């Protein structure tokens, strides 16, 4: 069994839901060495998250952003953690709801997501900056 672990720095993106599947595969030549296995992708931040969802229609990403902004509003009067700006506490809540990691099967050297699935970087801050992810590959 082979194990690989790599830390990647993702470019800064605007607030929203961004497909990163192709970017990940391009940065992981080690995938080609795995016939069958798993990729665990973990984001080292508390105000951004990862998710797997629709990869074809960009209106899905827009609708996700709109829904999460209504479900977890800025400037709620009960927030106490406010020193880092009005988008910070909502970003933490959104990240907790979506999660810090995804696990994807590897088949024949590729991430085995469904036809209409992609891996999202969910940026919940207005100016989150570059994000760091740790990817652990295992398989044979």
Automatic annotation (TrEMBL):
Entry-linked InterPro entries: UPF0047_YjbQ-like, YjbQ-like_sf
SUPFAM superfamilies recorded: YjbQ-like (SSF111038)
UniProt family annotation: Belongs to the UPF0047 family.
Cross-referenced NCBIfam families: TIGR00149_YjbQ
Name of the molecule in the record: YjbQ family protein
Source organism of the structure: Rufibacter sediminis
């Amino acid at each position: 069994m082979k194990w690989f672990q790599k830390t990647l720095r993702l470019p800064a993106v605007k607030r929203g839901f961004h497909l990163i599947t192709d970017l990940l595969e391009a940065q992981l030549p080690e995938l080609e060495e795995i016939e069958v296995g798993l990729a665990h992708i973990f984001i080292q931040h508390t105000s951004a998250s990862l998710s797997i969802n629709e990869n074809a229609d960009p209106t899905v990403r827009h609708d996700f952003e709109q829904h999460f902004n209504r479900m977890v509003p800025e400037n709620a009067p009960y927030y106490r953690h406010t020193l880092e700006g009005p988008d910070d506490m909502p970003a933490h809540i959104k990240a907790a709801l979506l999660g810090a990691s995804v696990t994807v099967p590897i088949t024949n050297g590729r991430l085995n997501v469904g036809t209409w699935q992609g891996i999202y970087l969910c940026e919940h801050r207005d100016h989150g900056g570059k994000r760091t992810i740790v990817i652990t590959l295992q398989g044979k």
